[in-house]
Amino acid sequence: MNISTDFVNLIVTVAFSFLIGLEVKTYRIQYHDNSTKYFFGSARTFTFVGMLGFIFYKIDLMAYLSVLLGLTILYALFYYQKLLNKKQSILLYLVMLIVYGLGPITVKFPIWMTSLIFVLIVFILNAKNSIHKFTQDFNPYEFEILGKMILLSAVILPLLPNKEVIPYVPISPFKIWLAVVVVSGISYGGYIAQKYFFPNKGYFLTGIIGGTYSSTATTVVLSRKANKTGRNPIVEAAIVVATSVMYIRLIVVAAIFNFSIAKSIALPFVLLSLAGIIVSLFFLYSKKTRDINSEFVDSNPLELGAAFIFAILFIVMMLLTNYITSQYGSLGLKIFSFVAGFTDIDPFVLSLVTGKFSINSKEIVDAVMVAAGSNNLLKAIYALWFGGWKNTYRSSLWVAGLGVFTIFWALST
Predict the structure, then answer these.
(1) Residue 16 and residue 22: Cα distance in Å, rounded?
(2) Among 148-152, 241-245, 293-297, 322-326, where is mean pLDDT lowest?
(3) Whether the predicted model's global pTM rises above the 0.70 cut
(4) pLDDT score of 1
(5) Cα 406 from chain centroid (whole Å)
(6) I need a labelling partner for 178 at 20 to 30 A (CA). Which of 9, 45, 165, 247 fits?
(7) What is the pLDDT of residues 252-272, one digit of tens each?
């Protein structure tokens, strides 16, 4: 027996309309003390609204729009009464509009669309407190920075020439800025996660998330805290895990621009990352651990000034790499890689994975590993300098050990 498609669509519409009505009732009980005075409709009302949307959409578009207009006028009268009682919210009207549109949606789209809309309504209604807290805490200046970066990415980026026009720079302006956008985006994601979704969740989580956008800055912050609070194994664990996450981050960055290089560094970097994670867990589960409120690196990586400096460093690193490889070959590149590791490592790594140099892939892989290793030595020095020997010597030694082993792996293979 063949079941009519319209019959199935009607049942789906009615079912989801009823479920949304129940969710609205739950929302009313949870956030408004089960008051019905300022609420428009019940689970049955939303069910009938969904049925009306389906029926009149199947009859005629003008009939569908006329009923929508009637429901809007009805809600306007209800809303006017709310205003007289100094209440104002159009949330339930918006939900009613979605329910009224479920009929056309089930007709025009697969069932996953209706299901997704239902899930989003449930999530948004139940996330009232979380969303309110997020919007209250979020710095409007960071929205402004994000807007500027979107402008430069979506508007300016397509206008840049995708051919080599800068003398001695073997990459186009388009790819230069694309690299800036990608790295800044990854860093921004980690920054937002740490600042707004996982604030004060413990130093170990600070180390993990901080490593996704700046393991060096995270090491400095954690070391300074260790200097104030004394030796704490959980802070030492966070310092080590930040460096461990850096290895994974470099694999991801390389994979976006040069997958063959990413494959070559994947094995050593994953093993080194796992080694660091194991050490950090050893510190974390030490009997002497004591976690306290953590801090984050409060520096937005999407700031335009930082983005332009990154672009300039990227070009400078590419120019230097091009000159050194052409004049001094593989040995010169390895020495330069070691020196570059004591600066911001990302511009140098990006210059290697995106540029066209007179070196083979093996030499590029070695250079990336040497730079990562020397960067670990820099972080070990920072940990001792800002944290003090007695507070961070163990984590510093482990980070330095990872750095030395990374360099040894590059030079011995």
Answers:
(1) 10
(2) 293-297
(3) no
(4) 46
(5) 27
(6) 247
(7) 988 988 899 999 999 999 999
Q: Which residue has the tokens 């939303």?
A: 46
Nearest Cα neighbor of 19 from 106, 140, 171, 122 is: 122
Structure-token pair, residue 61: 């578009």
Could you list the beta-strand ranges (E) of 111-161.
none
Do the beta carbons of residue 114 and residue 106 sit within 8 Å?
yes
CA distance 14 to 19: 9
Tokens of 151: 């402008």
Using CA atoms, how far apart are residues 156 and 149, in angstroms rounded to an integer? 10
Q: Distance between CA atoms of 248 and 211, rounded to whole angstroms?
A: 9
Question: Cβ–Cβ contacts within 10 Å for residue 65, how many?
Answer: 12
Domain boundaries, the chain: 5-129, 138-412
At 8-54, the pLDDT tens digits run 889 989 999 998 888 888 777 776 654 545 456 677 888 898 999 99
Please list the helix, strand and coil fractions of the chain in percent, rounded to the nearest 5, in that order.
80, 0, 20
Q: What's the CA gap between 339 and 336, in Å, rounded?
A: 5
Query: Are 356 and 387 contacting, i.e. CB atoms less than 8 angstroms apart?
Result: no
